[in-house]
C-alpha cells in the first residue's frame, strides 16, 4: 500500500470529488462558451446507460486489458523521465472492490483500484481500457509525486502531511487494505481541506485532462477504440454539467473535459469531423450521432439501426432538415432549410413534402397549403413578394383555378 493522500477519484460519479492539486506539465486547453454549449448538449443527449449484470469476473477483464496496455504504459513511463522510484514503471497492481459508486483510482505507488460498479456501467474492454489507461497516466505523469513535492513547497498544513504519514505508518504496521482505505480516505479529506485553503485545487483540473490525453494515446497504441473512450468521457461528463469547472473544482466540468478530449482526439479538428461512423451515443437503438463518409451527418434518435424519431440531418453543402423520422425516412413534421434561402416547414411522407406546409423561396414567394409528393397539390395560397395573393386549387405544382 502507498503513502496516502493522493488518490485520484478520476472516474467518480456522484461522490464528493477528492482533490489533490499540483502543477501539471500541461494545462487544459481553454474553450469558448459556444463550444462548451455544444459539448454540454452532446452529454445531455447521450443514450442513458442502464446497469448490466456482471457476466465475467471483473478482475479477469481488468487483467486482460492491463496486459495489453502495460507494454505501452511502461514505455511511456520510461520516456517520461526520472521517476520517484526506479521500479515504478513496472509495479502497477490491480484491485477490484465491491462498491456501488462508479469510481476508479490510483495511489502514487501505482496501486490501482476499480470499484465493481464500473463493470456494471461499461460496455467493453475498450471502455475499461480508457479508465485504466487514465489511472496509469496519473502515475506515469508523476501527478502523485508532484503532489508531495508541491505540498511541501507550498507548506501544506500539518494535517495534510500527517495524514500521509499516518497512512504510511499504518501500512508499515501491516494494516489490512480495508482499514488502510479508511485511513487514506481520512488523510485525503485532510488534504482536501488544506488544499482548499491554499487554493491549489484547480491545478488538478489540468491533471485530469492531462491524464485523459495520455490515456487516449495509450489506448490507441494498444489498439483500443477511441470512440469507446469518448463514450466514457460522455458518461462521466453527465455528472458535472456546468459549462466550466469552478475555482474549487478538482476535475474539469463535463463539457470542458469532453472538449479537451475531442481536441486531443481529433487533432486539428475539435469536432472529430474527420471521423466517420457513429461518433457519439447509440446509433442502433437510442440517441446517436452518425457521420457518413461523404460528409452527411445525423444527430438524433435511432431504432433498429435506422433513423427513427426526432433528429437533425445535415448535408455537406449546408442544407439541413430537423424533424421527425420513421424507419429510415422523413415522416411527419419537419423543417427543411437550404443556405440559399429555400425553406419548408410542414408535413412529410417518405422523404417528400406531403400534407400541409409552408414553402418559402429565396425571392420572397410563399406558398401555404397542401402538398403531394413534393408538389403543391390541393388547397393552397401563393403570396408574391409584392403582396399579390393567389388562392385556389393546385394540381401537381400547377395552379388550376380560384
Ligand atoms: Zn483522474
Tags for this entry?
402 residues; alpha+beta; Collagenase (Catalytic Domain); Histone H3 K4-specific methyltransferase SET7/9 N-terminal domain; 2 domains; twelve-stranded antiparallel beta sheet; 10 helices; binds zinc ion
Structure description:
With 402 residues, the chain is α+β, with helices and mostly antiparallel strands. It folds into two domains: 33-266, 3-Layer(aba) Sandwich (Collagenase (Catalytic Domain)), CATH 3.40.390; 277-401, Histone H3 K4-specific methyltransferase SET7/9 N-terminal domain (Single Sheet). It contains ten helices and 15 strands. Strands 4-5-6-7-8-9-10-11-12-13-14-15 form a twelve-stranded antiparallel beta sheet. A three-stranded mixed beta sheet has the order 1-3-2. The protein is elongated, with a radius of gyration of 27 Å. Zinc ion is lined by residues 8, 10, 134, 138, 208, 211. The site of zinc ion (ZN) has 6 residues, from helix 4 and helix 8.
Amino acid at each position: 500500500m502507498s503513502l496516502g493522500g493522493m488518490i485520484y477519484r478520476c472516474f467518480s460519479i456522484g461522490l464528493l470529488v477528492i482533490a489533490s492539486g499540483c502543477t501539471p506539465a500541461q494545462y487544459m486547453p481553454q474553450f469558448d462558451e459556444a463550444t462548451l454549449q455544444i459539448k454540454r448538449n452532446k452529454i445531455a443527449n447521450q443514450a442513458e446507460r442502464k446497469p448490466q449484470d456482471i457476466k465475467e469476473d471483473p478482475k479477469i477483464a481488468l487483467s486482460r486489458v492491463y496486459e495489453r496496455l502495460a507494454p505501452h504504459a511502461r514505455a511511456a513511463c520510461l520516456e517520461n523521465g526520472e521517476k520517484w522510484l526506479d521500479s515504478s514503471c513496472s509495479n502497477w497492481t490491480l484491485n477490484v472492490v465491491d462498491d456501488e459508486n462508479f469510481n476508479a483510482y490510483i495511489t502514487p505507488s501505482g496501486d490501482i483500484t476499480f470499484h465493481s460498479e464500473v463493470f456494471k456501467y461499461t460496455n467493453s474492454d475498450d471502455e475499461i481500457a480508457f479508465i485504466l489507461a487514465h489511472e496509469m497516466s496519473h502515475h506515469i505523469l508523476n501527478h502523485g509525486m508532484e503532489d508531495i513535492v508541491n505540498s511541501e513547497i507550498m507548506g501544506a498544513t500539518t494535517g495534510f502531511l500527517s495524514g500521509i504519514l499516518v497512512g504510511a505508518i499504518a501500512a508499515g504496521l501491516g494494516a489490512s487494505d480495508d482499514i488502510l482505505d479508511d485511513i487514506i480516505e481520512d488523510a485525503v479529506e485532510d488534504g482536501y481541506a488544506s488544499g482548499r485553503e491554499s487554493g491549489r485545487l484547480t491545478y488538478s483540473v489540468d491533471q485530469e485532462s492531462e491524464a485523459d490525453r495520455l490515456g487516449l494515446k495509450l489506448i490507441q497504441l494498444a489498439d483500443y477504440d477511441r470512440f469507446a473512450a469518448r463514450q466514457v468521457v460522455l458518461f462521466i461528463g453527465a455528472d458535472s454539467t456546468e459549462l466550466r469547472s469552478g475555482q474549487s473544482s478538482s476535475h474539469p466540468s463535463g463539457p470542458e473535459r469532453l472538449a479537451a478530449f475531442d481536441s486531443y482526439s481529433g487533432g486539428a479538428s475539435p469536432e472529430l469531423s474527420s471521423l466517420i461512423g457513429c461518433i457519439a451515443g447509440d446509433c442502433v437503438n437510442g440517441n446517436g450521432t452518425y457521420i457518413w463518409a461523404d460528409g452527411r451527418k445525423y444527430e438524433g434518435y435511432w431504432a433498429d439501426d435506422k433513423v427513427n424519431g426526432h433528429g437533425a440531418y445535415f448535408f455537406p453543402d449546408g442544407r439541413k432538415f430537423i424533424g421527425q423520422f420513421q424507419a429510415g425516412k422523413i415522416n411527419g413534421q419537419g423543417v427543411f432549410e437550404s443556405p440559399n434561402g429555400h425553406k419548408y416547414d410542414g408535413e412529410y411522407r417518405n422523404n417528400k413534402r406531403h400534407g400541409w406546409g409552408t414553402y418559402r423561396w429565396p425571392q420572397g414567394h410563399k406558398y401555404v397549403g397542401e402538398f403531394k409528393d413534393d408538389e403543391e397539390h390541393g388547397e393552397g395560397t401563393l403570396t408574391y413578394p409584392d403582396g399579390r395573393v393567389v388562392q385556389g386549387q393546385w394540381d401537381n405544382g400547377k395552379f388550376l383555378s380560384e
